[in-house]
Amino acid sequence: MTFEEYAELARLLAERRGAGAQSVAAAERRRDLHAAADFLDGRLTAQGRRLDLLGRAIGEPPAAAPAAEPGTAPAGPSTPVGDPPAVVAPDPDPGPTAGATAAPARPVVEACDGAASASAPAVSQRDAVVELELARRYADEADRHGQQAELLARRPMLLPAWSPVARAAVVYLASAGAGVVLMFAMVLASGLGALGAGPLYAWMCAGLPAGSLISGWLVLGRWGRAPMEETGVARHPVLGVAVCFLLVPLAYCGYLLLLRIVR
What we know:
Keywords: Membrane, Transmembrane, Transmembrane helix
Number of domains: 2
Structural class: mainly alpha
Radius of gyration: 40 Å
Region (Disordered): 61-102
Number of helices: 5
Strand content: under 5%
Helix content: 55-70%
Number of strands: 2
Transmembrane segments: 169-188, 200-219, 239-259
Order of helices and strands: HEEHHHH
């Protein structure tokens, strides 16, 4: 074997070794891209479940998957990343019968040099990496907005920044205040002779406080509960009984005391 043949053989071995290393690196990149795509698919599936949960919490039904139109074939597998499709070109010489019936097209893979064939997979893989990075950023942003929406869904509509005890106290005080207004209307009706003393005392000591307690209980159950509240509504019935059954009689006693002072 001459030195030139030995050098040619060494060059061929080096080229084959380099091509093998490039194919192994391309396979590893494709495997990494597929793993990243599967991970993003799992994240998107989890985000879809969270959105369905939030939708059910606010009373919105989950979005149904779009049905395929009749007569359309299911989509086939996508083209692997890094493998460019073959170029299909018609026969350049269709023959004398081209005017009547054209010859079927034959797939022709265009020849290209080593640099162009090596750059095409690199460009497509680089584009896939960019797209996956953009998808990851969008998924992170969707997670952030989803967490904010979940925090909002765990807060009640009525006085969301207040504590449960303060919210219940305000609701019961407002209900008892409405009962006090009705009590003064009954006192006025009693002074005009439209209502007797017995019914007035019954409403003042039992009817109006019970009505105030029930109305506050219902208001807390309707607007004091968060859409995604896992536990029951904190209604604090002891606080409601103390406020409603004391405020209305105390208001009537204060009214009588004020009349005595004025007279």
